[in-house]
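Assemble and predict.
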Amino acid sequence: MSTYGSLFRVTTYGESHCASVGAIIDGCPPGLQLTEQDIQVQLTRRRPGQSNLTTPRNEKDQVHIQSGIEHGVTLGTPIGLLVKNEDQRPHDYSETDLYPRPSHADYTYLQKYGIKASSGGGRSSARETIGRVAAGAIAERYLKQVYGVEIVAFVSSVGKIHLPFTTGPSSDDQDNDDIGDAVSPEFLKLISTITREEVDKQPTRCPHPETAERMTQATKDAQDSIGGTVTCVIRNVPGGLGEPVFDKFEAKLGHAMLSIPATKAFEIGSGFRGTEVPGSKHNDPFIARDGGKLGTGTNWSGGVQGGITNSEDIYFRIGFKSPATISQAQQTAQYDGTPGTLAARGRHDPCVVPRAVPIVEAMAAIVVMDQLLIQNARKTAASLLPPVTTLPPTMILPPGAK
Amino acid sequence: MSTYGSLFRVTTYGESHCASVGAIIDGCPPGLQLTEQDIQVQLTRRRPGQSNLTTPRNEKDQVHIQSGIEHGVTLGTPIGLLVKNEDQRPHDYSETDLYPRPSHADYTYLQKYGIKASSGGGRSSARETIGRVAAGAIAERYLKQVYGVEIVAFVSSVGKIHLPFTTGPSSDDQDNDDIGDAVSPEFLKLISTITREEVDKQPTRCPHPETAERMTQATKDAQDSIGGTVTCVIRNVPGGLGEPVFDKFEAKLGHAMLSIPATKAFEIGSGFRGTEVPGSKHNDPFIARDGGKLGTGTNWSGGVQGGITNSEDIYFRIGFKSPATISQAQQTAQYDGTPGTLAARGRHDPCVVPRAVPIVEAMAAIVVMDQLLIQNARKTAASLLPPVTTLPPTMILPPGAK
Amino acid sequence: MSTYGSLFRVTTYGESHCASVGAIIDGCPPGLQLTEQDIQVQLTRRRPGQSNLTTPRNEKDQVHIQSGIEHGVTLGTPIGLLVKNEDQRPHDYSETDLYPRPSHADYTYLQKYGIKASSGGGRSSARETIGRVAAGAIAERYLKQVYGVEIVAFVSSVGKIHLPFTTGPSSDDQDNDDIGDAVSPEFLKLISTITREEVDKQPTRCPHPETAERMTQATKDAQDSIGGTVTCVIRNVPGGLGEPVFDKFEAKLGHAMLSIPATKAFEIGSGFRGTEVPGSKHNDPFIARDGGKLGTGTNWSGGVQGGITNSEDIYFRIGFKSPATISQAQQTAQYDGTPGTLAARGRHDPCVVPRAVPIVEAMAAIVVMDQLLIQNARKTAASLLPPVTTLPPTMILPPGAK
Amino acid sequence: MSTYGSLFRVTTYGESHCASVGAIIDGCPPGLQLTEQDIQVQLTRRRPGQSNLTTPRNEKDQVHIQSGIEHGVTLGTPIGLLVKNEDQRPHDYSETDLYPRPSHADYTYLQKYGIKASSGGGRSSARETIGRVAAGAIAERYLKQVYGVEIVAFVSSVGKIHLPFTTGPSSDDQDNDDIGDAVSPEFLKLISTITREEVDKQPTRCPHPETAERMTQATKDAQDSIGGTVTCVIRNVPGGLGEPVFDKFEAKLGHAMLSIPATKAFEIGSGFRGTEVPGSKHNDPFIARDGGKLGTGTNWSGGVQGGITNSEDIYFRIGFKSPATISQAQQTAQYDGTPGTLAARGRHDPCVVPRAVPIVEAMAAIVVMDQLLIQNARKTAASLLPPVTTLPPTMILPPGAK
C-alpha cells in the first residue's frame, strides 16, 4: 500500500500526469516549528538539473501545506501537502505505446492492475518520491532539533567508479589470504564528519573531488545509462531503537530503502564484505566512553546489534540499477508478442544516483522517527513502574551503564 | 513487534530458556491438508548438527499443533503451534555475566528494555526462528500445491570461499574495462534447476561439491567464526505481486530477510554488481513465450520490476555476519566500563550459514503468501467489474498478453 | 490515527481553517468508472442548509480529484482528493477563547496535544467528515455496481420524537409481562424498501411525513440543541464478511460509526431491546429461499451471526448527542479555573442528525468494502485448493447450501 | 483477524476441542512484576459455575505462561500463554449436525470458510475469550500499578429486569414532556464507588441485592434463555487518550466490546438516552477541581469528549443477546433446506451475562493500555521540543490547566 510507518505514518498519492502529487503525514509531534521552506530545501535538492547548484532558486515543485500547522507550529494532526504537476495532460498515444518498456514497470503494472496510466508505470514514476522527501524533511527537523540527529547521504559509486576506501579488497580475490578491512579508517572518518554542504559541492554528490570528476566523465554518454550506489550515515541516533523480531532496525531500514525506485541492494555496517571477516576481528569490543557510557571500539555492526541501535553511527549502502530509459534502440517485443525495436524519445538522465541522495535521507529520517516514537512509548511506560529489586543484577541495566 | 504480515500473519514468542517457543499463524486459507510432519521436515532441517544427514531422525524440536486444524485440514482459523524448550532453567550466574558480549544483543536489549533475559539477548536467540520456520512450512505447502511454487535456498559463500560463477568480475578491478556479467549463464542455470535434495547432499548446503569441501575445511577452526551468504530462488511465483509504493515486493522480501538474526545485507537480481552494468545491457528485453505470454530474455531484474513480480524466477542473496560467539579471548569492557577479557565457554558453531537455509526459505514463503493474498483480493474485485471500453487500448492489458 | 481500513484504506487530513480538507483512498479496485460527480452527490447531501432541497445546485464543497483516475477510470493506485476551505484565516481571538467550550473538544485536544487549532477542536470539526463521505461514495459505487449493494440511512428520532414502530415497548415498563417485539414488521418492511429519494423528501430525512413534521417543529428552538438517532440498512451484502475474532463485522461497523463526531451509541439488529427477548423468540430460524439458498425467517440478528454476515439485511442504529454549541449562556469555567459564563456567537444548527445521514452511509460503505476485499482474498485462495474429501460431511459447506 | 491493538497487541488462537486455547501478548512494558496467579484470578472469574463463589478453588482453566517473564518480571518481549482444553476430541457426529443451529455461527462460518470445526462455530466458542481475559489481566496490572486505574463491570439488566436508577424515563413515553435524567445521581454514585468484591457478592453479579434476586428467579427456566446488559466503569484514566479521527476512544472501546461474542449494542456516557436531552442540559460545564485541575460538573459525556478522554470516569454499557442454545425444540431447516425440528442436548447456561463481566473488564483494560502507550509516545516526543512562544496563548495549554 501507499502508507509507511505505524506512529509516524506517511501516505502518498500521485502519478506523473495527474493534478498533483502529495502526502499526508500523520503522527508528527505537536509543537514543532515548521514552515514550507523547511520542506522545500530537500524537495529542491531532488529536482532534476542539479548539476549547477548556483543557478537561481528553482521555482518548480513548490510544496503547499494544506493542514496540520498554524502560525508555523505543528498541531499534532495530519499534515496534508501537495506539489502540483506541470504536465497534467495524459500522455499522447504513439507507436511506442505498443511496447512495454524493458525493465520499466509498464508490464508489471498491467499484470497487477489490468490497467495502467497512459504515461506508463504510474506510481513507479520518480515524482512519487516527492511525498517521501517532504515527509522526511519533517521527520528530520524533529530529530535534529531534539536529538541532534544528522543524516547525510552521498554517492559512493557510479558504474565501476567507486569512492576509494569505501570497501576492502575484492571478495573475488579468493587466493588472497589477507582478508583485509571491510571498514577502513578513512571511510569511518568520512562518515563521522561528512556534511550535506560538502556533498552538494560536487554535481555528482560524491564527496571526493577526483572520483567525482571521473564519475562526471563516465556519465556523459547520453545514449546509455549507468547505476551506482548511495552511502548514508545517521549520526546521534539514541540506542534502543528497532523492534525485535520482525521489525529489527535494519529490517525496517532495508524495507524503506528498497522501496525507493530502482534499488536492488542494501547493506548495513560491514555488509556483504563483512561476511568474509572472522568473528575475532568482526566483533566490536566494548569500551568506556566519556561519562561512563559504553561504546564500541570498532563499528563493523553499523550501529545496530541484535536489530537494535547501539548509539554508534548507523551507516548503510544502497545499490541503484542503471535507469531503464535509454536512447539507443533495443530489441524487444510488443504486448502481443510481436518482436520489434524500441528507442526512447527525448532527453533522459543517464544516471539518477545523485538525485537519489535526498530520497535516501528522507526515508532514513522516516524510519528513525517511527522507531523512536515506538521506543518512547515503551520507555515512558517502563519508567513509571516501581524499580524491581528481586532480579539478578546482570538482568538489569546497571547504574554504570547507560 | 513480533508479528509479520497483513493477511497471512505470523506472530511468534519465546526465548532460549522459557517453557516453549511458538507461533500463531493467522490467515492460512481454509481447506489445506496439513499435518505436523509437513512442518517438522523444515524444523528438522534447521536443527544444529546437520552435518551428518544420515543419522537417525532427530527427536528434538517436535512441533505441537494446538489449533486451527481438524482431521488434518486447516479451518481458516489461527494455527497455534509450539515447540518445547529442553533447558528451561534460567541461566546460572557467572563472572562472564558482568560483560555484555561483543556484537551480541546483550547490551542493546538492555538499552531497549532496561532488562534482559538471564540467558542474554532474549528474543535474539536462534530458537526464535523456530516459529518462522514452522509458519513458512505452512505457507509453502499452500503455494506449492496451488501454484507449484518452489523455494530453494543454498549456501553461496562461506568467508572468502564463493560458489564459482555466482557473480562477475570484481567491482574493485576498476581498471578493467570489461564490465562482465553480474549474472552468469551457469548461475542462471543453477537457480532454475536446483532442488533441496541436491542442497542437502552437502553438509555445508553448498550445491557445488568442490566448493563445499573447501568450505568444510575453512570452518574447522573452532576458536574463531566466519560468516557467509545464502542465495535463494523462488520459482513459479505469479506476476503482479508486490504493493506500490512502500511495499514493493523486494522491499517486503528485504525486510523479511533482514529480520533473520545475523543478516547484514540483501540484494535481489543483479544486486550491487548490477549497478556497474549499463542500461543497454542490464535491461531485460521482452520475448514471446509459448502460448503468447510475454517473458524476458534475460533476468537481471531478478523477477521483480517496478516493485512487482513479473513471473520470472525471483532470486536474491543475503549476507550473514560471522557469529559473535567465539572461544578465543576478546578484549572488551564490563557493563560498568571496567576493561577485561571475555571468552565464551562451551562448544559453538563457527559458521551458522548452512542452518540459515530453511529460515531463508521460510521467510520467502511467508512474504510470497502474504503478497499473494493481497493481490488476490484486488484481482478478484477487479474481475467482477464490467469491462471498460472507453480507454486507449494501450492502457489495458491486451488480449495477447497475460 | 487518521487512517481507516486495511485493504480499502482511507486517510484524511484537515481542520476548519486550513487550506483544504482531503483524503487519500488507497485500494480502490482498478477499472471502476468514476467521476467527480459520483462523489459530489454525497458531498452535497452533507452540506449545511439542506432543508430546501429544491434550491439550485450548491456550488460549495466541490471535490477535486488529484490522482488515481485517468479517462474516468480508476487505475488501482491511490485516489487523492481535496475540497478547499472557504475560510482559511485562523480564527480571531476573543474573550470566549479563555473558555474551553463545554462538551466540545477544546479541552481534550489540549490535554492530548498540548496545543490546539485556534478555531477550537481541530480535527473534531465537522469538515473532517468530508473526506469520509468522498471515500464512502467511491466504495459505494463499486459495491453497487458489482453486488447491487444498497445503503440507506435515515433519521429515526430527534429528541424524544421517534419514528413509530422502530422499536417495541419500553424496556422500563418492568411490570409488563408482554415482552413485545424489538423488531416490528413495519420496521422490517421499511428497511427492506426505503430509498434515498424517499429519505430526502423530508428536510429532516425521516421517512415518515407526520413524524418528520413533528421533528421540524421540535428543532425550531435556536437557543438550544437536540440529539437524535440515525438508522441505516445495508442490503445485498454477500455472506461471509467479518473477521473472527476481534474484527467481527459488527465490531468494525461499530468502530466506524462511533468514530463519527457526536456519536455515543451503536446497536445492530435487535440491539439493546433484543437483550430482553428470550432465545426461543430471538433466534432466527433457517428457511429455504428460492434456489435452495438458506435464509432466516426472522432477522433479529440484523444480518450478522457470530460476527459474520449471513446475507440478510444489515441494519443498525446510531445515537448522536445534542450539539455542544448553543446560543444560551452556560455557567462554566475558564482554562485557569475562573468561573464564568459563556454563550456561543452566531448561528448554530440545533440538530445535526439529518446531515449525519450521508456520513453514516459513507462509513458503512467503507466498512463493507474493506471486509469484502479481505474475504475475497481468502475465498479466492481457498477456491484454488483441491477439494477435500476426507472430512465428515457436516464440516463442509454442502452442495445444497450456498 | 485474531489480533487486537497496535502497541499493546493481543493475538489469540483456539477452538473448543483443539489442544489448547492461548494468546501472545506483545508490547507489555518491561519490568512489570507478574505471576500466573495475577492472570488466574480473572480466568477463574470467567469460568462457568460461578454461582457459589465459596466453593474450593477451581482447578480448571489453569494458565501456563510460556515466555516473556523471568523471575516473575516481564522482559518486554512477547508473553505466550496457554490453557489446555479438557475435551480435545472432535465432536461426535449426530443427526443434529445436519442443522445449522439458529443464531449460532455454524452457518456463517461455513459461508466464510467453506469449512467449519466439527464442534460448530469454531472461534465463536466462548473458550476463545480465555486469551482475552488473560491479556486483559496483564494490562490491568500495569494500569493499576502505575495509574491506579480501576475497572469494574457489573450486570445492569437481565431480560426486562433492570438495575434501578441506571437510566431515566422511557424514551417511548413520548407524551411526557419531562425529559428526565439519562444519568441519575444514584447511578453516578454507584459507578464511582463500586468494587469487584461487591459485584461478586451476588451470583448474578448485579450489585443491587433485590434486583439480583429477581434476576436469579428470572433465569431459572432452563428451557429458554435470556440476554442482558453489562455496565462498566473505568476510573483514573489519564486525559488525552484516543486518536482522532478514526480511532476515537469510544470507537476503539466500542470495537473491542462488540467483538465479544453475543454483543449487539454499545453505548458510552448518556448513550441512546442522551440523544433526547437538550444541549443546555447535556453539556458538561467545567469546574475547577482541587489543585487547579479542570473537571466537569456533570458527566453526560462518560469521560470522553471529541473522542479523547478527559480524566472523568469512563462508563459504558453493552447489550448481550440471549444465548442461541436452548433446550426447547425449534422449527428450522437443515443445510440442504429440508425443514425440521432441532433441540439442543445437554445442559446449557440460560444467561451468560454474569460470566461476561471479566471479559468486558479485560477488553476495557486492553483498549486503555494500547491507547495509553500511543499517547505516551506522542507526549514524550512533544515534551522534548523547546517551548513555543510565538502562539496566541489560547492555543497552548495554559499553566493553570492540566
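The radius of gyration of chain B is 23 Å.
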